[in-house]
């Protein structure tokens, strides 16, 4: 296993766990407040919680040092797309369903205080976007690892110690 992927993968998995935990916690507060308020987008909240929960579960499982975490890159891509969808529905809600004004990527107003509703929305938005990016980078690292290992497996060592993909002895014609 390449050293770079061994160093990067756990860092990415930890970031996935942290970002999913932040989104799950903040959205959980909104879901808790839903019982006392009306007009909140319950479906969006539930979708965000489900994606965050699945991300927490998979992030914990794949944080264990198994090589299978590198071969799970298609699931990483799928989870990344799910996070992009969470980001999209939250941005849509921010623009149409709240009084919070400002650009989508104006994250200088992020806050975690209970009375700063717009700041908490921006935090959920920001961490859902960051989670999507981290899952996508994790998928790219996994794809790079799998591609590199397949290429190494095809390398044949010649009689003179050289290694070349598909080495063929001199004088032998290879039919394709």
TrEMBL record:
Keywords: Membrane, Transmembrane, Transmembrane helix
Domain of life, per lineage: Eukaryota
Annotated localization: Membrane
InterPro entries: Marvel
Residue intervals of the MARVEL domain: 9-140
Pfam families: MARVEL
One Gene Ontology CC term in the entry: membrane
Membrane topology of this protein: Multi-pass membrane protein
Coiled-coil segments on the chain, per record: none
Transmembrane segments: 12-32, 44-63, 75-94, 126-146
Primary localization class, coarse: membrane
PANTHER family named in the record: INTEGRAL MEMBRANE PROTEIN (AFU_ORTHOLOGUE AFUA_5G08640)
Protein name: MARVEL domain-containing protein
Species whose genome carries this gene: Exophiala mesophila
Organism phylogeny: Eukaryota, Fungi, Dikarya, Ascomycota, Pezizomycotina
